[in-house]
Specification:
- The protein has one helix spanning 259-263; strands at residues 5-6, 27-28, 47-62, 68-85, 89-90, 93-100, 103-109, 121-124, 128-138, 142-151, 176-187, 190-201, 204-211, 216-222, 227-238, 241-252, 275-287, 290-303, 305-318.
- By secondary structure, the protein is mostly beta strands.
- It has one domain (5-318): Porin (Beta Barrel).
- A 12-stranded antiparallel barrel has the order 3-4-6-9-10-11-12-15-16-17-18-19. It has a two-stranded parallel ribbon with strand order 1-2.
- The termini are far apart.
């Protein structure tokens, strides 16, 4: 999975997330680290909430040995989210739903043309639907959540429909589904949480790649490998302030497949399995009814992916 970057969404104690990319079509459906600082197993009280993630990333590309290739990507990802908790119970759990439409600004510099930046552009990512989130409150201040996220095939640009002026596509040219699971221990201002996602990508039937036998670029079937991702949080709230640490992990569990993956060098036994790990501090403050949380993550180790420095500033407010 040769990567280029990430897009995602997160909503209050719920991991509703989207993601990154390199020979895999383009983006991973979960944006690494975006759910750090959240109570992954809990839902907010009944009501309608607005969330805005402001996610900036300065990424370098890493090869299968964990070394930089010279390619670089700067990205700004704006993710407005609406989450609705109608106050009803399903199977004894609190129920909620959400929707998000992320927009991303990308500027890619290849290893051979590191000084070029004329492909910078805005675009819209795949629409993200979360039809169901269930959260159970358990004894000993434990909370457990499960949900399903769907990524529609409606991005403004992709490898199959590239943006004007070149550069990377704003989203993927295929559907993805993402079951997720979160668990939190919330006690005396402490939030110890783990938020896990399993990403299943459907096939892209017209992935644009060069046939090495004919040197002709054409559309071929490409299915990006499945992934397990996680965001982790340990924070303490004192008064209006919250501080702590967060981390993330990404592991691709099977090879990309299809003729397009073979031509790109990522199919069959070759593989381009991605893995990435990072960590950093979390700081938050409560302004009346508005919560603001900043999270910074630094790359620890990465293969077949992009990684570097990430800063996300999340605003949450009830409507």
């Amino acid at each position: 999975m040769k990567k280029l970057t990430c897009v995602a969404l997160a909503a209050l104690g719920v991991a509703i997330a989207a993601g990154s990319a390199s020979a895999e079509e383009l983006w991973d459906p979960h944006l690494r680290g975006v759910d750090e600082g959240l109570a992954a197993g809990a839902l907010p009280p009944p009501g309608v909430y607005g969330i805005l993630d402001n996610y900036w990333a300065g990424y370098s590309q890493y090869n299968s040995s964990g070394h930089k290739t010279g390619a670089h990507l700067d990205a700004l990802i704006e993710i407005p989210i609406v989450l609705w908790n109608p106050g009803i119970k399903v199977l004894g759990a609190d129920y909620a739903m959400a929707i998000a439409q992320a927009g991303d600004y990308t500027n890619f510099k290849s290893a051979n043309n590191a000084g070029l930046s004329n492909n910078a552009h805005w675009g819209t990512f795949n629409t993200i639907l979360v039809p169901g989130i269930l959260s159970w409150s358990l004894p000993n201040d434990l909370h457990v959540k499960t949900g399903l996220t769907i990524y529609m095939d409606d991005a403004s640009s992709s490898p199959n429909s590239p943006p004007n002026g070149g550069g990377v596509g704003a989203g993927n040219g295929y559907w993805s589904v993402e079951p997720d699971f979160g668990i939190s221990w919330l006690h005396d201002g402490w939030n110890v949480s783990a938020d896990m996602q399993y990403v299943y990508n459907f096939a892209d039937s017209s992935y644009q790649v060069k046939n090495p036998n004919t040197n002709i670029v054409g559309g071929y079937s490409y299915t990006s490998g499945q992934e397990i991702t996680g965001d982790y949080t340990v924070t303490k709230t004192i008064g209006k302030w919250t501080f702590g640490v967060g981390g993330f992990s990404l592991n691709q569990i099977n090879n990309d497949s299809g003729q397009g993956a073979d031509y790109a060098g990522c199919g069959k036994s070759n593989g381009c399995k991605a893995q990435s790990y990072g960590a950093g501090p979390i700081l938050g403050y409560q302004f009346g009814g508005i919560s603001i949380v900043g999270e910074y993550s630094h790359n620890i180790y990465t293969e077949n992916d992009v990684a570097g420095e990430m800063l996300n500033v999340r605003l949450v407010a009830p409507f």
